Every structure is written in C-alpha cells, then in structure tokens.
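Data availability excerpt. The first of two example chains:
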Amino acid sequence: MNLKPMFSFVPHAWRSPLASLAVALVAILLLYRQTAIGMVTIWYKSETFAHGFVVFPIVLWLIWRKRAELVGLAPRPSPWLLVILAGLALMWLLGDLVAVNSITQLALVAMIVIAVPTVVGIPVATAIAFPLAFAFFAVPVGEFVMPQLMEWTADFTVLALRASGIPVYREGLNFVIPSGNWSVVEACSGVRYLIASLTVGTLFAYLTFQTTRRRVAFMLVALVVPVIANWLRAYMIVMLGHLSGNKIAVGVDHLIYGWVFFGIVILLMFFIGARWTEPEPSAAVPSQGGSPVTVLPHESGRQWLTVLALAFMISWPIGVKQALEPSAASAAPNLTVREPLSPKWQQTEATSLGYAPHFELPSTELNLAFGNDSVRVGMYLAYYRDQDYARKLVSSNNQLVISTDSQWSKVDQGSSRAELDGAAVTFRRIDLRRLPGAASSAPDRLRVWQVYWINGKWTSNDYLAKVYSAVYQLLGRGDDSAALVIYAPLDRTDSADRAFDAFLGANQMAIGGMLRAAAAKR
C-alpha cells in the first residue's frame, strides 16, 4: 500500500515537526501510561464522564479544520516552555503521592497540551488554542461540586413545594410531605447534566459563534441552564409522585423522566442559540503543492533536541516515585488500646450505639464505645499505611454516613473545636437521625465529630491533609494516616458536645500516643 498520496497534503516544512511532536506525545503517554489508563477506566465505568471517549477525536477534527491556517505558519520550537513542563511533572508527582486522580490526570493532559507549543511553537498553538483547551474536558473532574448542587436542589424543591401549597418538613437533604418521604441523593445533584451541557455547549459556542462575547455568553448559559433545569426536574418528580399517590416517578421512571426533561431543555437551548449564528470566515483548503513556508535546516535539529529535553523534563518524577517506594513491605500497623484509656471511662459494646463510619479498606480499624456514668461515647479509628488509588484515607468514598445507609440519615453539618493531643483542633461535625427500621437500641439522634491524623498533624481539611501527606512522603516519613471519629447520643442541644469534651479531656494524650506508637512500628 502506497502511503505517500495519503500524506501528500503535508508540506515538506511540516513533516519533521509533526514527526517530532508525535514522538513527544507518545513519550508522555508511555511514561504516564498508568494515569492515562486510569482516566480511560473512569470514562468506561462512569456515565458522568463517558464523553471522554470522544473528546480527543473532536480535538483532532477541530485541528484538521484549521489546516489551511496552519500550513502558513512556520513550526519552530519554544524550548523555554520546558520549565512549565517540569512544573507539570512536579504537579503529577505530588498528585500521585497522595493518590488524587484529578491532579495527576489534569497534569497529564496539561503536559500533552504544552508539548504542542514547546515542539512546534507558540504561533501554531495560538492558532489551535480552542482545540487544545477543549482537551481538558477529557479529564474526569467536577464531582466535587456535587454536595453544593444537592443542597441547592433541596433548597429549591422545598421552596417550590411550599409555594405550591404543600406543607414540608425538612432536615438536611431529607424532607417530608403529606404523601411521603423524599431525599436528595447523588443522582439528584444534576452534576451529570451540568458536565454534559457544559461540554457540548462549549463546542457548540465555538462552532456557531465567531465573537468572543457570544461564545462566552453561551457557555455561561450552558453552565446555568442545566442547574436550573435540574431544580425544576426535582420539583416536577416530587409533584408527580405526590399527585399520583406515589405510583409514578418513584422508580426507574424517576431517572427516565429526568433525562427526557433535560434533553428537551438542552435542545431548546441549542435551538435558541442557533438563531444568533455567526457565519464562519471562509478558509481555502491547501493545495497539493504544499506551503510556501520554509524552515531552515537547523530548525529540525532544534526540534529533536527539544523532544529529548522534553523527555528528560517529564521522566524525573517517575524516578523519584520509585525511590520513595519502600524496598520491602511495611509491617501491618497495630493499634493497641489500653482498657480503659482512662480509668473514668469503661469500655462497652460499640454496637450499643448502632453506628459505624464508612471507610474503605483501612490497614486496620477500631470501633469501640466507652461509658462514664450515664454518658456513652463511641470512638472509631481507621488507620492507613502504604496508600494507593484504591485504598486511601482522604477519598470521596470515605464518609461519615453514605446516602444509601439504611440506619442513619444526615440532618445537619458544621464544625466544632476541642483540645486534642495538647492543641486546639477543629473537628468536622454532622448530626444524624435514626431511620425507621433501624436497630431500636440505637439512640434517635447522634452527633459525630471527625478529624484526620497525618503523621502527627491534626486537621479536618481534606486538602490540607493531602498536602501534609505529600510533604511527609517527600521527607521520607511515609504516609501513615488515620481518621479519628467520635460519636455520642444527641439528647439535648449540647449533650454530645459535653460528652466529647469530657472524653477527650481524659483520653486525648492516650489517643495521640496510640497513633504515634503505631506509626513508629513500620
């Protein structure tokens, strides 16, 4: 098969630059293949990010549409951008140390994008700036907005129901109307609608409009409309269930109605947007004769030297990561509890409180309960060592209560402060309500406090916990971390808080010492 006619449209001046760029991109993908595979795996498993499969084909098509403009540009490398690539490689390393997919995958796509101006020049990258920027839609990120979207959805639904004359009693994301109980869960957040609308809306704006003002305006519309549409969808589903006696919109059709409604709204959005279409300036297709652009012979050599430097700049994090990995398997951590921690607190059955946080695959865990006269306090510890992407302390899968929990439902959240290990510490706080059908021995309500222990540092902030973990690993101190959760019945407004203060006051040093002792035995 003669391939020459297939590539005859490529000007001679572009053949070496395209080859060097292809080598650079292949090098990036080979070095960071695990990150790339992880990203594709998320596309495959998550309906929210399934659009990732078409992002890079769209990027290539958008670049192909610019070929008439590109052949008139001289591809010349910009080696100074290697500094940015080195910074992105560091970003990947830090993200990998704390096993955060969004950071490593953003760094990978950013390296692919920056490799273009590095090898073929900034003028070329400027001409295809939108296709390169569109590549970031391949990164499966965005679910961090889910809690806020759920809160907004619950706020609007309750407000709309009351405006419709229906009495509503609300606690957290749960609410009760005369016809039944409803709750806003992850599927009701609308994050799928939002990501899909923003991706397609951004592409539509680029292809339909030519002025920046109209493009940005339509992108903002594509961002706001799905959020409002999801609020209306949630309200309509509750109303359908209420008016039908809970015969429709309460099962699979709940989701079907949602997608149908969302599809209609998006089609209307595009139909209205198309009324302000701006015609695209005509561009001549390059002739078979190539481009008049000439590239000096030494430019080809500079491009290949740039590719070699690029490979070096992006490969060092792989060596650092291997150097930080333990040469042998670490010993399993051992959490030894003196019974009791304090003579004033006697250990009892943890099941008497009927609660356990949801932490996946800890290296070891404890769930104990202690009593002091009439006060009961539960203590849960989840200890992690040698963490990876499947097993880590700070994860969206690790929650004090999951939305599908059959025993407890979250009704409030906030923060509280107390002394721990000799220092003032801020705890994450949630209040729980026992669901119908839960164990009758459990209290009606629980208050839960939670904080992270990262190699001796206490924090309740997820991001700060990740920073501590990365720094300690770079210092060679390992990744030993733990979650401390304490919980108590919430009989009165401050009953649990007073129980926590008493329990921590008597046991805080013993808890910190137990964690430090576990970390010392690696």
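And the second chain:
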Amino acid sequence: TLSGLVERIKICNKFEKKYKMEIIQKLSEFRKLLKKNKKHSDYARTVEIAKEYKAHVSGVGLDDYLKQFAKREDLEMFEQRKRLTNSISQSVASSLQKPFYKVARNKNIKNKLDLKGDKTREAIVSEMSSGFYGTNELNSKGVDFWLRNRFLELTFTDPNAFVVIEWEAKNLNEIVEPYPYEVTSENAFYYKYKNGVLQMLLSRQFETMISIDANGDEKESSIEVYTLYEIGSSLKVKQYDPKFYQANNITINAKTQTTFEEDGKHFIATLNETNLDFIPGFRVGYIRDSSTDGRTFVNPFESAMPYFRKALKAVSELDLSITLHTFPQKLQYVQPCQGESKTKRCVNGISGGETCKKCKGSGLQPIHKTGQDAILLPMPKKEDMKDELIDLDKLIAYKTPPIELIKFQDEYVRNLKTDAHLSVYNSNMFIANEAEFAKTATEVNLNTQGIFDTLFPYTEKFSEVWKTAMKVFVRLSGFVGDFELLHIFPMDLELKTKAVLMGELKLANESEAPSYFRDAILNEIANQVYEGDELGKLKHFTRHRFFPFSGKTESEIQFLMSSPYVSTFTKILYANFEAIFTDIEKADPKFYLLAYDKQWEILNETAKPYIEEIKQQSEPMRIDWGA
C-alpha cells in the first residue's frame, strides 16, 4: 500500500542517516589517530627483525649486516670484501625451513567441517576455500596451498605481519571470493588487543592514483592508503582526484562513502561492514619475543641468529682469504728489459723519457704468459759451460701458501651450520648423513623428540589459522548457527628419516619385539620409499597384506617353515610368493585395484596349481649314488 511504502522510505532514510553518522564518527577517530602519527610501542623492533630475517632467508640486503673493521680496513677494502663475500645464510635458512614443509604434508591430519547437514552452504565454503589463493578453476591453490607455502614463508621472514581475509562486494546471488591480504610489520602502524583478541588494526598500503593535471593530461602517482579494521567493519581512506572522477563518470556511493578535503588534497573514505563479531585477521608469528615481554613474535630460527651473524663474518673472511692468498705464487729470475730497439733502450722501465712500452715500466724482460711462449736462454760456450750453465730448477720456484688457517676457517663455518640446527631443533638429524646418524636407539629417540618439541607449536598455529579461515568462510556463506570445526595434527608427524627408522627396526629386532610392532616400522619405511609413487605404494601394501610371515625375522621364518603347525598353503605361498604374484599380474593387470575379497579369491585360484604340483612330488626323489 502507499502508506506502507512511505513507511519503508522513512525507515531507509533513517538507516542511511545512521550509516552516514557511523562513517563520520569512525572517520573522526581515524583522522585523530593518523594526525598523532602514533605507532604501536614495538614498531621499531618488529620492523628491524623482519628486515634482518628477510635478508638472511633471501640473501638480499645482507651487505647491510657486514661490519667494517675500522682498525684493519679502509672503506675501499671493506667494499672489496663485500663484493667477494658469498654468504651461506640463504642455504642455512633453507635447510632450517625444510622440516616445516614436512609438517603440512602429513596425511593423518584430522580436519572436519560440519554445518549440521547444510550441504548447500558446505559447498559454498568449499568453493571459497579452493579459490582463496588462486582460482576456483585450478582448485589447487586454496587455503591448504597457502598455508603450506606463503604462510610458512611469512613465519620465517615477518612473524609480526598480519594477514586479513578480505573480499569484494558481490550481488546477493553471487558467492564472494575471499583472499589473504598481507599487512607487513612495516605497514602495521597501530593495533589493539583485549584478552588476546584483536580489537583494532591500522594498516598502510601503496596504490596508484590517476589524476588530471593543468593541461588536461592524465598522470599516475603513488599514494598511501590507510585502512582501519575494527570488529564488524573496516574504514578505508585514500586520496583521489575529483576531476578524474568527473571525467570518467565515477560516482561516490552516498551510503557507504564520504569525501573530505585536507591540506589542499581530496580524500574519499569507504566504510565496509563485515557483519562479523570479530576482525577476520590474525598475526603470523607464534613464538613470543622475550625482549618485548611477549607482545611481539620472533621467527622459528631466532635462537640461531647469533650463528647466522657469526657465519656472515666468518664466511666473509674465508672468501677474502681464499681469493687473496690461497693460490700458488711463482718466483722467477728474469733478464732486465733491453727496450724497444737499439735506439730506445730501457733503463729501469723508462725509455726515451717515457714508460717503456715493452715492459710496461717494470724494467724486466716480459715472461711467457701462455703455453705457446717459452723462456729462451743462450747456450754458453763449451769451455765456459761448467761455470755459466744455469740450473733450471733454481731459475723458477713455485711457493704454495700454508692452508692451516683456511682449513680452520672452513671447519669453523661448517660447525656454525651444525650449531644453528642444534639450537633450533636440538638435533642435527636433517644435516647429518645416514652413516653418522644411525647410532643408538636412545640417540635416535632424543633427536626425534627435540624436533617434535620445535615443530609442535607450529602445528598448533597452523591449525588455528586454518580454523580462522574456515570460520570466516562459514559466516560469509550466510550460515549463522553453531557448527563443528576440527583440525588436529597427529602426535607422530612422520618426520623420521630412513636412518632413524632402520635404527628403530634394529632395536625392535634385538629386543625381540612382537612381529606386528616390527611390521609397523617396515610400513613407515615403505611409505618413504614409495613417496610420490601411488601405484608402487598400492602394489607394495597389497603384497604385504598377503605375505605369510610379515614382520618375522629370517630365523623365525625358518622355524615356522619346518613346523607342523603351519598350513601347507602358507608354506607354499611363502616359497613361491614372487612366482604366484607374477602369474596374477599377467592374468589381471588391474588386480591391485580390486576389492580385498576378490583379490583373496584370485590368489587362492592362482596358488592351486602350485599346491597340486607339490603334492604330486611328495615322494622323495631317489638318487643312485653308485652311478
């Protein structure tokens, strides 16, 4: 009705005024915060460590951390040392990162999202997840891919960065596409927490502004854009050119945007309501920084930073020593330079008042520089040969420098890499070769436990971030009720190398552990051997399932084969195992893809001819030894 329509218009106008007042109020708070140029109390610390971490991880900017020895080298020598330095920081940082990549590849992670049977919204959440870090079409760079790669990189390079989940506004019938927006520690100006919950974040970013100059031409310039994130909304403020907006018919949304002028510049403020009861963002780090009483975070190899700094200095000196000193030196007697001609004689490198062109001012006769040249000496007369003949071994001498110092420096650098691993993992398992590491079971266990202690906090943070992202997706899908969300890593992260597992198997055999226990270790070894080869893994575990004496030692098998308590079928299967499975594969190449019951049926049928043939040969063979 007409009266109902009028009432709806009044409600809409009232809502728009309230919305407009909210923008003005938030903008006022934002401008006050920005004018004070206030940054959080630990801003300098977070920016400083992020810069140093990134330099060591990427290798870019490491020169800034090389120190000049003021008493021993001038600026020119220092610059030369920097040019000669080939740091190992990037290599060491990479080796420290690799075990963290193994964490996300664990196949026994328990994750669950249950929207109480709402399959429609579960499908929407799945689509948001798959397109989180890429596109939905690829379906390979979603949340899990981002966590395995980019999140891990940020953990090591900028633990105080924030990641905010953002999305563009869509029509009601369209699914929004969330994506991760990174706020580096340098751009995270100010934030507030209450009981560990993020209440406010002020971030800066750089964008390109197009404006129209006095001649009517378009020009581009870089501008700072600020965003104030709060619970339920975000306010984005950026500079704009009204002339460009007018020329391109770009309109200001009166409901969600407002403009203002300050210091002769025009700004536009945009308010976005998230309708969430939390800020959809989190800080990357999880290891508290003791220097700020836990208000900020450090990266996983912070405990190894003293070794990184020492290695930078040691490698610099080693490279300099090798380049400048570690090469054979040649000592040789040569004749004085005779000059360019009889009229242009050379006297101590000077010929005709100018530098001699033949010897380049050295005053010595040029020596051979390639294998095609030779030093020619006149043969003395026969009667003078005894007195004038020169011992050629004494004409030229090669001197090699002592390398004890170089060996010491090289060993020192290698030890620093080992010490870095020990400080992070309390283990050198990932850098020692298998022969060195396969020691006693006690050492194996201690090394493994040290690694678990290091990686466990990371698994907790990993799960927390995954659940945060899913919670945002669920709310964006329109689901408002309670839901079940689960993400848990197993206690065994499957980080043991083959050397560790072989050590455990050796201990299990020596202690006469049950066969099923030894069998479990063998299965773990097989998982590593067939990593990436799904068909090979399927064939192995199918054969393993039917193998008669899995987990038994050789002596145990020999005893069972002679025992009357083991069936004839089992003995024949063991003795002819490879031959029987070769027959099966020839008859049915898809055998390994079949169900267990069907596989068992085929195995029995294939084994029957072997059983019958052996029964027919049950009479012992008689041999006439006298023949």
